[in-house]
Design a protein that fits this description.
alpha/beta; Rossmann fold; 8 helices; 14 strands; 28% strand
């Protein structure tokens, strides 16, 4: 797949401006679709406000796609909005909700289409975990079924906020390569392989 998949530890629209600017330039994106689906039960409007300020700094346009439920993700027009973009950012705090909303929907198919056309898909924080299979279940640190955009690895996002006990439990339960990814760090996957940015701990060999 010729596109770029990015897993950022956290800090949506705050901590990764230099990387984000580089990625947008690499894929020639002047418009970014932002999916705050994982924040459906929180305050997605706060993330969208942050996205607008970020877009002004980076001189791009933002299209906030408020897909918060599975029926909305099943709408072909929502998939068309995603498919028309060169860059898509997934943000929010609930990876389980994100998975349940977008899995096997037109929106999910459209994300694959963005990558197939050479675009970039970015998961920040919990969505970065959800894009992997397995993903980390935030309720206890165990591994659960993820979306599988990246297969055969798991990512502990915002790892600086987790307790040593939670880290130890996740290590014990993991049967795949595992990455502890602080908010300020990121992993970038291209056809040529992985690029690691910022401090992290990788346990095993990334696929």
């Amino acid at each position: 797949m010729p596109g770029i998949i990015v897993l950022q530890g956290g800090g949506a629209f705050e901590l990764h401006d230099d990387l984000d600017r580089r990625l947008l330039g690499e894929v020639g994106a002047e418009r970014v679709v932002v999916l705050p689906t994982a924040d459906a039960f929180e305050r997605p409007e706060v993330l969208i406000s942050a996205a607008m300020s970020w877009a002004e700094r980076l001189e791009v346009d933002v299209d906030a796609l408020m897909v918060m439920s599975r029926p909305e993700a099943m709408d072909e027009s929502a998939g068309d909005v995603v498919r028309s973009a060169r860059a898509v950012w997934l943000v929010g705090d609930n990876p389980i909700h994100l998975r349940s909303v977008v899995k096997d929907t037109p929106v999910w198919t459209a994300l694959h289409d963005v990558l197939a056309s050479g675009g970039v898909v970015v998961g920040v924080g919990a969505p970065a975990s959800a894009l992997c299979d397995p993903m980390i279940d935030p309720r206890g640190g165990a591994l659960a079924l993820g979306l599988g955009l990246v297969k055969g690895m798991a990512v502990v996002t915002r790892s600086e906020s987790e307790t040593p006990e939670r880290h130890a439990r996740t290590r014990k339960l993991a049967n795949v390569p595992l990455v502890f990814l602080p908010s300020s760090s990121a992993l970038v996957r291209r056809d040529s392989g992985w690029e690691s940015l910022g401090p992290n701990e990788i346990v095993g060999q990334l696929p």
